[in-house]
Design goal:
By secondary structure, this protein is mainly α. It has two helices and two strands. The protein has one domain (3-138). It has helices at 3-95, 109-124; strands at residues 99-102, 135-138. Helix 1 crosses helix 2. The longest helix is centred in the first third of the chain and has 93 residues, at 3-95.
Length: 157
């Protein structure tokens, strides 16, 4: 073998080694790209899940707040109803009339109707008054003046 053949063989070996190195580098690059994409996807999915959980938590917290507000409103309505019922019983007990014509604001008519049976029961309770139930008529023709239009109709004056 002469120097030219040896040089050619060396060049051929160098080309082969270079080609193998380039192929291996390409494989490593492709593999790294795939791993990078998979890691990006995993991170994106993890963040999506975290954001979704945050929204769900905030939604639940918002619902709890809504329920608390509705419960507070319900408590106020019940307290107003109880107060109106007690006041009506007190008034009737102080009058002790056999017949009562009841006047109320037009907007309170349904509320008064809704508590009337309870008021009569409380009034006739033998331990409280020992009296017979009066005849109660709600005046539907003459009403008390309406509340001011810029305020809550049931707010204390």
């Amino acid at each position: 073998m002469n120097d030219a053949d040896v040089s050619r063989q060396i060049q051929q070996m160098v080309r082969f080694i270079r080609q193998e190195a380039e192929e291996k580098a390409n494989e490593i690059s492709v593999s790294a790209e795939e791993e990078s994409n998979m890691e990006k996807l995993r991170l994106v999915e993890a963040e999506k899940k975290k954001i979704k959980q945050d929204y769900e938590r905030k939604g639940k917290q918002e619902n709890v707040t809504r329920i608390e507000v509705l419960q507070a409103q319900d408590d106020v309505v019940k307290a107003m109803k109880d107060s109106a019922s007690q006041e009506l019983v007190r008034s009737m007990l102080s009058l002790r009339e056999p017949a009562v014509l009841l006047r109320c604001r037009e907007i309170d008519h349904k509320l008064v109707e809704s508590i009337l049976d309870e008021v009569i029961k409380d009034y006739t309770d033998t331990e409280k008054a020992k009296v017979a139930a009066p005849s109660i008529t709600i005046d539907t023709k003459v009403h008390l003046p309406p509340p001011p239009s810029n305020e809550d109709p049931h707010a204390p004056s």
